[in-house]
Amino acid sequence: MSQTYLEQLWQQIVILPIEEQKQLQQRLSDSLSEVVTEEEFEQMLLTEGLLVTTSKWITDSSLSLNRTPIENKGKPLSEMIIEERR
Fold first, then answer.
1. Closest CA to 11 of 60, 77, 19, 3
2. What is the pLDDT of residues 2-30, one digit of tens each?
């Protein structure tokens, strides 16, 4: 939301009668207190067309524990990367 839109919204809120401001406050409070899981949030983004696909995280740690390092001849890869960035 742009700052201009928020400012316009605020200007409309402050002219509401106090009872309607309280109702708005309650609705916002209720809305913000709802807990949404990551999956539900991704689904909402998919529905709105803001996300094309969801990625699944690897939760099996044995896959990373069973890796074997690749032997590298010469400088360590981290040094090579740092030199290239200079």
1. 3
2. 678 889 999 999 999 999 999 999 988 88
What is the C-alpha to C-alpha distance for residues 28 and 26, in angstroms, rounded to an integer? 5
Pair of tokens at residue 20: 């309607």
- Residue 86 CA to residue 75 CA, distance in Å, equals 16
Q: How far is Cα 16 from Cα 27, in angstroms, rounded to an integer?
A: 15
Alpha-carbon distance of 82 to 18, in angstroms, equals 60
pTM: 0.38
Q: How far apart are CA 73 and CA 67, in angstroms?
A: 19
